[in-house]
């Protein structure tokens, strides 16, 4: 069962998604359902609710095609982004991969969901979209080992991380500003549990991540070509500060693509999902 949030009459409704049967609201499964997916992760109730969903009648489910998905949740404690994590992408920018992860934090005001518009800020003449694999923390961790790190990850998701690249190029100290305009972090629509990901792929190394614009311009690479693996990123950042349920680590992009109003940006990860957002003038 995947996690997602849908729009129902203007309200965000947390749901479970059965790829075969469709979507069921958490509130249809139990009278004391968590009000958000973030609350579900914080309470550690996924297994309970997934069991209830598996036993639910087919009539409780709505076909996913009839649903509008939104961002899985809006208020994570923090979002970590990772720059220059694919060696090939660093070479594109005429930069070397740093000796330690080049990480930064994004505010939750940047969050949008599938289908929401990415606004190009008037301050930027060159904004890029970057498809990325996202790690969603499921259990609090601090100073976790690399060996145990993925045990603290609930699952993965698709991400589009935007950058006002022309602002960043003026000065690398402008990283926070260039990454934090509204609409500069889209994620979802589904969060796929790590157990399902590992059952499908064996490990994360063969997961293929693509940035796609207008269905044709594509930059693709596999997790195996990351300089810093997902497990390392969790362990490294847990040594900086605690990671809490619902925190997101966006693991870096195989390639950034310049986006303009009228474009459609996409993060495509076969076996995980696809995330599309139209681009508009801010």
TrEMBL record:
Output the Gene Ontology terms for molecular function. hydrolase activity; metal ion binding
- The reply to whether Nucleotidyltransferase figures as a keyword in the UniProt entry is no
Task: Give GO terms for biological process.
Answer: small molecule metabolic process
Q: Which Pfam families match?
A: FAA_hydrolase (PF01557)
Gene3D superfamilies attached to this UniProt entry: Fumarylacetoacetase-like, C-terminal domain
Domain Fumarylacetoacetase-like C-terminal, residue spans: 78-280
User: Key word Nucleus present in the record?
Assistant: no
Keywords associated with the record = Hydrolase, Metal-binding
**InterPro entries reported for this sequence:** FAH, Fumarylacetoacetase-like_C, Fumarylacetoacetase_C_sf
- UniProt-listed PANTHER family: FUMARYLACETOACETATE HYDROLASE DOMAIN-CONTAINING PROTEIN 2A, FUMARYLACETOACETATE HYDROLASE DOMAIN-CONTAINING PROTEIN 2A-RELATED
Family to which the UniProt record says this protein belongs: Belongs to the FAH family.
Q: What is this protein called?
A: FAA hydrolase family protein
| Taxonomic lineage from the root | Bacteria, Bacillati, Actinomycetota, Actinomycetes, Propionibacteriales
């Amino acid at each position: 069962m995947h996690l997602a949030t849908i729009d129902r009459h203007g309200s965000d409704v947390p749901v479970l998604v059965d790829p075969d049967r469709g979507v069921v609201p958490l509130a249809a499964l139990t009278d004391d359902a968590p009000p958000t997916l973030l609350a579900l992760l914080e309470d550690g109730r996924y297994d309970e609710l997934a069991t209830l969903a598996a036993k639910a009648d087919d009539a409780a489910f709505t076909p996913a095609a009839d649903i509008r998905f939104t961002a899985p949740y809006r208020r994570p404690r923090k979002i970590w982004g990772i720059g220059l994590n694919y060696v090939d992408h660093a070479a594109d920018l005429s930069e070397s991969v740093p000796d330690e992860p080049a990480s930064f934090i994004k505010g939750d005001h940047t969050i949008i969901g599938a289908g929401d518009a990415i606004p190009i800020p008037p301050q930027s003449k060159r904004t890029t979209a970057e498809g990325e694999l996202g790690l969603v923390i499921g259990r609090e961790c601090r100073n976790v080992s690399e060996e145990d790190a993925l045990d603290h990850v609930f699952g993965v998701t698709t991400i589009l991380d935007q950058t006002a690249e022309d602002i960043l190029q003026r000065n690398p100290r402008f990283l926070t500003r260039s990454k934090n305009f509204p609409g500069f972090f889209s994620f979802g629509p589904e969060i796929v549990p790590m157990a399902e990901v590992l059952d499908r792929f064996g490990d994360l190394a063969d997961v293929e991540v693509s940035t796609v614009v207008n269905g044709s311009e594509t930059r693709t690479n596999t997790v195996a070509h990351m300089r810093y693996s997902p497990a390392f990123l969790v362990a490294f950042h847990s040594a900086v500060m605690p990671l809490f349920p619902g925190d997101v680590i966006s693991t870096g992009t195989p390639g950034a693509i310049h986006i303009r109003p009228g474009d459609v940006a996409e993060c495509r990860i076969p076996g995980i999902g696809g995330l599309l957002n139209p681009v508009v003038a801010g």
